[in-house]
Amino acid sequence: MHDHSLEVHGCNHHDATGAISTPIYLSATFRHPGFKQSTGYDYGRVANPTRDELEATLTLLEQGGRSWAVSSGMAAINLVFLLFNAGDHVLLSEDLYGGTVRLANDVYSQYGIEFEYIDTSDFELVASHVKANTCAIFIETPSNPMMYISDIRRLAGLAHAHDALLIVDNTFLSPHCQKPLPLGADIVVHSGTKYLCGHNDIIAGFVTVKEKDSAIAEKIEFFVKSEGPNMSAMDAWLMLRSIKTLGIRVERQEANALQIAKWLRTQPRVTQVYYPGLPEHPGYALQKSQATGFGGMLSFKVESAALAQALLGRLKLISFAESLGGVESLLTYPLVQTHAEMPPELLQRTGLDDTLLRLSVGIEDVTDIIDDLDQALNGQSEEVCK
Ligand SMILES: *Cc1c(COP(=O)(O)O)cnc(C)c1O
Fold this sequence. Notes:
Elements: H1 3-9, H2 49-62, E1 66-70, H3 73-81, E2 89-93, H4 98-107, E3 114-118, H5 123-129, E4 134-140, H6 152-161, E5 165-169, H7 174-177, E6 187-191, E7 205-209, H8 215-227, H9 233-243, H10 246-265, E8 270-274, H11 284-290, E9 297-302, H12 305-314, E10 319-320, E11 330-332, H13 344-350, E12 356-360, H14 366-378
Parallel strand pairs: 2-3, 2-4, 4-5, 5-6, 10-11
Antiparallel strand pairs: 1-7, 6-7, 8-9, 9-12, 11-12
The structure holds pyridoxal-5'-phosphate (PLP).
């Protein structure tokens, strides 16, 4: 079946009532029919029918083997980091979500795990940095916020040649645009808070692994049971409801993003536009070869930090806020928001500076988004509108 249909119908497990909308099973525990008997549900930390439906749906969308729905994107990334052991070396994209850098540098490195950040869009560079103890390559593609594109197929081949895992944070594109597992990745993680939810109303995360009964799946299942990061039944239901419209939201966001990127390119006060859907983007061909879309995220630089900062206060329709992927357009100032945790040398290497703005394009009418950017960018008034 095709993605739009899978998103609407999910795995289609109707209960005995035939309810079209999956019921919200608000039960912490489940009654056993008799000694050594189970309905398949014993205790809510281990399994819940609403969450199961969501997890099965995500597995279908990512074409994976098994998924876990958890309370945040960081909880999902934490589950994956728990697979690492003291003495392991992990290579990561240098242009990464700031929270992931914090989890690596300030939490896991104290347990003897070595994290090294490199430009994973440069395949030869990654190949030359793999060591005997490299256990994983962790990438975001497109990267955040500079939109570098990494080659999922080749990096999977490289990782497997060294008995390492390729882990992809697929938050920026969602499974509607990109499916890293069939391209060779071993694990996909998501901040479900972003495109999968799409309405800026819940914090959620997902882990999906390639094979259902693999050693990795067993370990993650054990970590989930032991640490209890699971998503609540209520949030799982909201998520199921959100995913029904994933495709139409993402396609609209992408169409808007392309028009906005083209408009930004014509603006004299904009010095650089980063959107992989523009043919001049260095990752354009690679992105086309491994994804079915370019997504709704773009970044741009303006002529000065003062302009970048003044512009944020003049926005009317677009909100100056962190996060991304929702139906509302949001503009972020990565240096002080999402990437405040980034060490200065990484910022310098990736080109993230005080003139950079990141736009998460919403589903509004694109002319209204462009009008708002126009007045904020080219307006003279320093008056704060919001
Ligand atoms: C937001 C985000 C995360 C963290 O997810 P939360 O749901 O906020 O915990 C991880 N990776 C990327 C790419 C993100 O954008």
